[in-house]
Amino acid sequence: MDDEDTFKILISTDIHLGYLEKDAIRGNDSYNTLNEILNCAKINQVDFILLGGDLFHDNKPTRRCLHSCITMLRKYCMGDSPIHFNILSDQTVNFNTTKFPWVNYQDENLNISIPVFSIHGNHDDPTGAEGLCALDLLSASGLVNHFGHSHSVERIEISPILLQKGSTKLALYGLGSIPDERLYRMFVNNQVTMLRPKEDQDEWFNLFAIHQNRSKHGPTNYIPEQFLDDFLDLVVWGHEHECLITPTRNEQQLFYVTQPGSSVATSLSPGEATKKHIGLLRVKGRRMNLEKIPLKTVRQFFIQDVVLADYEDAFMPETPQVMKKVENLCYAKVAEMLEDAERERLGCPLTPEKPLIRLRVDYSGGFETFNTSRFSQKFVDQVANPKDIIHFLRRREKKEDIKGRAAVEGLRVEDLVKQYFEAAEKTVQLSLLTEQGMGKALREFVDKDEKDAIEELITYQLEKTQRHLQARGVITEQDIDAEMFTLSQLCQLEQLYVPSLTQAMARARLHRLERGETSGGLDGPAFEDIAMDSDEDTVPVSSPARGRGRGRGGRGRGRGQFATVTVPVRTFGNCLTTAFDACAHGCN
Amino acid sequence: MDDEDTFKILISTDIHLGYLEKDAIRGNDSYNTLNEILNCAKINQVDFILLGGDLFHDNKPTRRCLHSCITMLRKYCMGDSPIHFNILSDQTVNFNTTKFPWVNYQDENLNISIPVFSIHGNHDDPTGAEGLCALDLLSASGLVNHFGHSHSVERIEISPILLQKGSTKLALYGLGSIPDERLYRMFVNNQVTMLRPKEDQDEWFNLFAIHQNRSKHGPTNYIPEQFLDDFLDLVVWGHEHECLITPTRNEQQLFYVTQPGSSVATSLSPGEATKKHIGLLRVKGRRMNLEKIPLKTVRQFFIQDVVLADYEDAFMPETPQVMKKVENLCYAKVAEMLEDAERERLGCPLTPEKPLIRLRVDYSGGFETFNTSRFSQKFVDQVANPKDIIHFLRRREKKEDIKGRAAVEGLRVEDLVKQYFEAAEKTVQLSLLTEQGMGKALREFVDKDEKDAIEELITYQLEKTQRHLQARGVITEQDIDAEMFTLSQLCQLEQLYVPSLTQAMARARLHRLERGETSGGLDGPAFEDIAMDSDEDTVPVSSPARGRGRGRGGRGRGRGQFATVTVPVRTFGNCLTTAFDACAHGCN
Q1: Do A284 and A308 lie in a common domain?
Q2: pLDDT at A9 over 80
Q3: So what's the pLDDT on residue A141?
Q4: What is the pLDDT of residue A487?
Q5: Is B533 inside a domain boundary?
Q6: How distant is the Cα of B495 from the closest Cα of chain A, in angstroms?
Q7: Biased composition, Basic residues: where in the chain (chains A, B) (predicted)?
């Protein structure tokens, strides 16, 4: 399995070094786990480590935090083990945040045994006039290779690090954290471009590290997987703390997504209670395999919900001494979790003794809350977070009063809704285009009370459509300035002059299927969805037997202007020369 | 001159990296000068760089500051030039602030061309539970060798880094900044020990880097040169910003002191106006030579004093339009300085264009101040500090009213003075012992209004004398607890039981002179005082032809308990094994 053609990559993200470092109990948690992760990389003799952002919890880590990090990186990632892969791309483009724009292991003054490649997260993002982040200190020291930092707010061009080990070619794409709304818009506006090598495009395994909201926090406050280019093979998704490391297939884009999750719980939410893992990714040719490695130093976290109204047999709000009974119930629940924790911890000497415990108590229906500080006292020696074990909550009211609310909000809402239907319903492509945005903005509004969502999206769509039509000479700048057309009218114009999106997408899908069935040459089985079995399982994933459209318009959404960007390649050692095609979002 | 037996050391201090880094004009000054210093080290192919503290201006340097520093160190101090000296001492003792307790150039994973040895200053001193300073980040990265960090507040043991190049043996002592009062007391209490190699003591050139007040800021708020062990050959004194780099001889201790001064002006005081230099120190055997190297990137700083009362021929406070005349005078003075600056800068392309200008205007005698913001406007394009060119001051009143003040202060002062004379005058050794402290405390009080100085010193002396006598069994702990003796009585007891200090010192001096005249074997001329000539001069200094007392009591002040400390020596490569004698302050 581990031969000279196989990349062995340790994948980890959201290490949040320094999280709660002043806490007497949990202070060392993040440090211990980074140590475990680096040690794991060393033991497994990986080719490199790929970090998905938020290595540091604080934008300005403390001295202790930086010192520990530097110390651990120097301890584990420097040494005599040789590096078995080459870099074929222009490193001055790949590593653009220091005066040493080359990979650390090729620096003649540093003896690197395990290169670390990292994008930055939202916690350790670049700030200040120099646009430097904490990672750049490590980068300048030669301990980390910070990549995926886009310096422009106008346009993002993601130029991959092209790695070759034996016969395997790995294109490593990365995009450091960008505010989700901004990135969302840039994707929608075709301002995000992923460059691809011009030669042998189908031979590359395309790996992309991203650090954004994956789950929808608002209409445009996340990045839909559909935004990502479908030539990718595997996306390593950082930022989301729930460990969903087993690659899941995106049926539309036909790539896989692995979400390793954080290696320390930074909130007491259910997502953080999932058992934490890192991944050992093997890539050989176009095939991959992701081995899940459970982390042993992570503090256990148990969470349970209690709905008091469900215990009507035992007590009701008016029952005498109901508070006492409720408290006893909670006490029993916490004790139960503590027992579970202890049982699970048996034989795991590296796991910290005191678990994190959270009991969410739904006291809807007339119950009252009890004194949590007295409750905490009972667990002060057994629980890592005695002060906030209990979290009281009440169910939200039902949504029967939407109409009432709309009435209260007044005409403005109605106007917006009307405008929405005028603009969107008549134009199929609009709702498709903004499938992830405007198409659902109405529901979003109703669901989540996000008042400005629709207005914002309509203005946005208006400007976009204007630009689109202007670029094609359908309307002029004067038309725009004079606000000659409503959005609805613009959409109709667009329908007339621009090839239908639905048609383009259907064509693209057909194209892919055809290629997929006829490409051959790869010996692996077709992609299969992988179910998450148990924590210790190794999940074999093989690369899809699908072909790549080389021509333009063969797939993708068929919109936008398609610039071809050729990037000169600096060569290192005995490596190939290559150049890039621009592969803008959704088109190739 | 530069042969295989000659250490070539670049000496610099108080670089204050990051000083005013947000200033539009001066923001890059400290960075440019660090760059110049490191470049100078590289060009001169020095064996190592010795920094005397305050490399960083801020205890928590900004990201930009750390990033720049790391970048420059990596650029200039890493590379293939071989290192020509060995370290003979136990490096785990020398470099005790990281998990890598060895000199960076011996680390197998780092290719160091110029090792940097640095003590910390008061600006970048260790803080927090971990006792880490900014320097330790560089240390952990392997870019700097931080030494001279004492982790104990009870006792300071300065264990030298023992370096050998060819036949030259260099013992490098360092003591990072400690609050002056605290260190003063520790010296007085014999809590500061300098260890010396047991073998071949006379063969070592003893170099000491210290970062403390050298000029007296208060009775105990500085470190008198006399406190330092007289076996030293050269003291590199950091912290003081005035460049007094030409070694001056301390006639009492017979060592030399070089005060390189800061490489950036952090205040507009006269000391900072002295031309800034770094030093190129050559040490061969026991001889040394310090070459002054003027810094080219340092912003010029001109300062002048104007006493308005001196211009009585031109104007008086009641002269019509006197303000205008005063302003014109100041204007002319500043213009004059600007002309001087420009002339001096001719042919110095690296020197920043706009100089720092300070005009101190003494307006005593009834004059008024004028509007400085209007004044500043005139020089906004020519001066680096337009906003604070003018500094108005008034002469202090004469000291004729000391008696009056004393009367106002009341009995307490008189009591203190009485107590002082009772205690001090009768006991010769007391005034000698505290020559730098209590002996001058009275004048200090009168001069500088430091009310607590005497009381503090007397209490201090009382405790010290008590401990001293208790250690000799003259008095008991019960006596102390019961406050059986006054300071005066204790001093008398001390006089009876402890050999007279004056006698001990006289004996020691005699001893030294004898040795000095008879030692021979060193071919250099006897020490000579060196006058500061011009900026470009090279000042040859040769080591004194003086012997070293090996026995105890042969010199020094003859007090205190003399512990012998033997330190195991870790060996690196082909180096000698050695051990240490404890050489406590003032005794051997």
Answers
A1: no
A2: yes
A3: 97
A4: 64
A5: no
A6: 51
A7: 547-558
- Give the span between the Cα atoms of B180 and B222, in whole angstroms: 5
Give B348→chain A minimum CA distance, Å: 27
* H or E segment and range at residue A479: helix A477-481
Whether residue A142 and residue B67 make contact (CB cut-off 8 A), yes or no, is no
Task: Choose among A17, A22, A23, A50: nearest CA to A35.
Answer: A17
- How far apart (Å, rounded) are the C-alpha atoms in residues B573 and B581? 24
| Count of domains for chain B | 3
- Same domain, yes or no: B281 and B311: no
Q: Are B137 and A71 in contact (CB < 8 Å)?
A: no
Q: Is residue A411 part of a domain?
A: no
Q: How far is CA A218 from the centre of its chain?
A: 15
> Hunting for tokens 């780099």 — which residue is that?
B245
ipTM above 0.95, yes or no: no
CB contacts of B143 in chain A (<8 Å) are: 141
Per-residue pLDDT tens digits for B44-72:
999 999 999 999 999 999 999 999 999 99
B335 and B209 belong to one structural domain: no
Q: Is residue A538 part of a domain?
A: no
* Contacting residues of A for B74, CB less than 8 Å apart: 100, 109, 140-142
Q: What would the pLDDT profile of A405-440 be if each residue is shown by its tens digit?
A: 444 444 444 455 555 555 544 443 343 344 344 444
- A246 and A359 in a common domain: no
A382 with A279, same domain?
Answer: no
Among A239, A273, A294, residue at a domain's last position: A294
The whole-number average pLDDT for the span B151-165 is: 95
pLDDT band at A490 (very low <50, low <70, confident <90, very high): low
Residue whose entry in the numeric block shows the structure tokens 């490191």? B38
Q: Is the pLDDT of residue B509 over 90?
A: no
Digit-coded pLDDT (tens) for A316-374: 999 999 999 999 999 999 999 999 999 999 999 999 999 999 999 999 999 999 999 99
What single-letter amino acid sits at A441? Answer: A
Where among A512, A543, A573 does a domain terminate? A512
Percent of chain A with pLDDT over 90: 65
Which candidate in A38, A81, A137 is best for mutational testing of the B interface (most B CBs within 10 A)?
A137
Question: In which domain, by residue range, is B270 found?
Answer: 7-294
- By DSSP bridging, strand B244-249 and strand B86-87 are unpaired
C-alpha A318: how far from its chain's center?
47
Cα→Cα distances B70→A72, A144, B59, B225, B240, Å:
18, 14, 16, 34, 25
Q: Give A181 or A539, the one with higher predicted confidence.
A: A181
Helical H segments across B78-166, by residue range: 91-94, 134-141
The widest CA-to-CA distance across chain A, in whole angstroms, is: 82
B218 and B255 fall within a common domain: yes
How many residues does the structure list for chain A? 588
Cα distances (Å, whole numbers) of residue B286 to A279, B204, B232, B577: 60, 7, 11, 20
Clarify whether residues A118 and A146 are in a common domain: yes
Tell me the C-alpha distance between A116 and A69, whole Å.
13
CATH of the domain at A341: 3.30.110.110
Nearest C-alpha of chain A: how many angstroms from B111?
A: 4
Each residue of A288-310: pLDDT tens digit? 999 999 999 999 999 999 999 99
Residue whose pair of structure tokens reads 């001990």 in the numeric block: B504
Does a structural domain hold residue A373?
A: yes
**Residue B374 sits in the same domain as residue B273:** no
Q: Which of A123, A211, A277, A585 is catalytic?
A: A123
DSSP codes of every residue in B13-63: ----BTTTTT-TTTTTHHHHHHHHHHHHHHHTT-SEEEE-S-SBSSSS--H
For residue A148, the domain's CATH number is 3.60.21.10
Q: Which of A68, A70, A72, A127 to mutate to test the interface with B (most CBs of B within 10 A)?
A: A70
